[in-house]
Amino acid sequence: MEMLQNSINWFEIPVSDFDRARKFYSTIYDYEMPEMPMGPNRMGILLYDQKKQGIGGAIVKGEGYVPAKSGVKVYLSGGTDLNLVLQRVERAGRKIVMPKTLIDPQLGYFAIFEDTEGNQLSIHSAT
Q1: Fewer beta carbons within 10 Å, N or C terminal of the chain?
Q2: What global pTM score does this model have?
């Protein structure tokens, strides 16, 4: 097998109430999430640098997309300090499941939060 540059190239977070979820993610990342229809599904694109071949993802409402606390775990980027995003999670009325926690000095920090749809997501930053 060839060595891949990244182990992921796209991810999708299932949502049941698209408008509520879009508002939540726009709030915690402090930007207006663009919406892009994809066939019968509604898709909201998370912030990433596509021009530099960044890895992106989206929230998606559609058939077969069911929010869950269990299943695949996704680590979102927390930027330079994930506390900024975590503060917005709380202001948006959602729960932090695990506060900012050191993984290792070389690997940085992570935390876990619950979104408006019941998904549990992790977030990571170097500091």
Answers
A1: N
A2: 0.89
